[in-house]
Amino acid sequence: MTHDLDSRAFTGLGRLCDDEAENRIISAPDPAGMERIEARFHGNAFDPHRHDTYAIGVTLHGVQTFRYRGAARQSLAGQVIVLHPDELHDGAAGTEVGLRYRMLYLEPSLMLDCLAGASLPFVRDAVVTDRVLRTTLLSALGPLERPLEALFVDDFIAQLTRSLVGHAGKPAKPMAKTAWRAAALARDYLAENLSRPVRSEELEAITGLDRYALSRHFRAAFSTSPHRFLVMRRLQRARRMITEGEPLAQIAIEAGFSDQSHFNRQFKKAYGMTPGRWASLIQGRARAAAA
Which superfamily does CATH assign the domain made up of 7-168 to? Predict the structure, then answer.
């Protein structure tokens, strides 16, 4: 069991809020490709959803229960959760005392340079007991109000990638250099054109591959499709705007969605709750901080 936590690993995590019963999400200012949050919940937290990033975190308090790859899982305080990109999952507090955890959402592209052409590691066990991995994670999931320095991020991703490769347990398959180059070109183009529709012909022109070959190579590199990658980057932008207090209707248009209804559907599909609920959880945290 992991109830006996290494207190040093939790240094700098901050004090618990006096009102433990209040559900809330705390989001950090992060560099491109990373997102860190702290979440506190009672009962069901997230409906079934999937995102195209790794979701890697530490349960800090309570029991975290979720369904992942067709099975019920639970994480106790001090255990690490590792969810592979594009895998369906939900989330809830497993006991009446509630749940508190911190999570890192990491775009797969940030790991690829560390993998020297190998494919992304797949950790079959979604709940891992590993003090070294936990300490590595908590070094980045410390005070969320403090931005991470660039040199720290580089070293952190290298350490994290090594740990995940070790837990994957199988040698990673190499990717052809041509496939990686085409996928990277498409990714960069999509990231630069979030606010407008991107056509397959555009990606074919810049990569030199037909749309079907590109789709295969893109999924091999990033564990998602070009279209889903584009939608998820729009949603990440929308979440940043929600944190800044922008109106949801305005966010929907500025983030590149056709209308608010389209935005709502895609947000819930990706994060397991509506943008309105996400906004209320973020704003609840802001109200508590101001009190």
Answer: Jelly Rolls (2.60.120.10)
